[in-house]
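Repro:
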Amino acid sequence: MLRSLRFRLPALFLLGIVVAGVVATLVAIRFFQSYTRTHAAGELRNESAGIVHLYRTQAGSGHVSRSNLEAALGGDKVFWVPIVPGASLLAGPLPPLARNAVPPAAFRGGKPPAFDLNVGSDSYLGVGRVVRLAGIPVGTLVVAKPHAALRARWVQLAWQLVLAFAIGIPIAGILVLYVTRRITQPLEALTTAADEVATGNYAVALPERTGGSEIERLSARFGEMAAKLAESEELSRHFLMSVSHELRTPLTAIRGHVSALREGVLVEEESRERSLEVIAEEALRLERLVGDVLDLAKLDARRFALLREEVDMRALCERAYATFAEEARVRGVDYELELGEGPVLVTDGDRVLQIVTNLLANALRMTPEGGRVDLALDAQDGQVTVAVADSGPGIEPQERERIFRAFWSGDGAGTGLGLTIARELALALGGRLEVESEPGQGSRFVLVLPRNLPQPA
């Protein structure tokens, strides 16, 4: 419980509020103390100025006593520090203070200073003003305010702040709990969803929208991740089913012919030779399938090396073209080679040849007898293009991305890996594979390669 975010988050918020409040209170009290002292010193200066002015005009009349004057001053005290021995200012008893009880600045002219004064067990804030009669300084009048009165002001402020805290902290706590709930609820929902995803259930409920917050973005990314995981698992199942099917077909044929040969069912030499040819063809088919699967796995994991060599593109295209010339002749396919400018590239020649032969094999498979397949080479704008066009059935717009998926075949023949490997190899070589097609009008695949193989990152 104490380690959970639901507890720690509001606790940290409240602790931060309390610490900030305590610091603010201490600073406020300190400033208020300074302000109170300064304000009280100003009041005392005004009071002392009024008393001195009064007694300059009424010196010695004896009409005002010290007690009456202190009552008029609202409890402030009046003291007399004589300069001339025996000099007195007020009528009635006014015990003089010792000269050393006030600072020396109180006996000089100018702005009266404020100072702390101790009289017996009482302490005061006092202001001393020099009194002159007939131009002669006769003493210093000290008007003082008890420190207890000053202290009562800021103590009252402190109690008001404590009361404000007592009201504000519960309100802040309620707000903190509300905000924390808003934060932790979607996080708990994401945790539950993650547990579901870990068990293989990708159709999970995600938190509702939270106003474009970071949690909403996290929820959106989590949903995308779950969708990709579901897609990946579906592709994995499809991959296993497709590989199993593709492996089972040639293995069944091989096993059947081997059994017939072992049991002596095929007694004629011609039949035995034909069975051996079928076994050899199916074994070659298995070899190609395993090679394609390994190539695809290496491409997905980026665990394959690319050679950097000079490749004559004209010679490479002629070689790829010659590979399928006999098949095209037998099927009556109009098979053409058009070689434009063919520069020498710095790339991996075997990989480029693999791409072109995959494209040609796909084009011939999709082209009916009597159709047409063209292989063209050109170079422009610092790039080399190899185009393979056919007169097959074409590709629907919604199928143009699907044809590059592993084990997907438009005619149900082949392994469905040729175009997948071709596109991945094109990307690995720093190029791209484009497709142009219209239903019923055939297709055109274009391999675009840079003149130099990019350096590995």
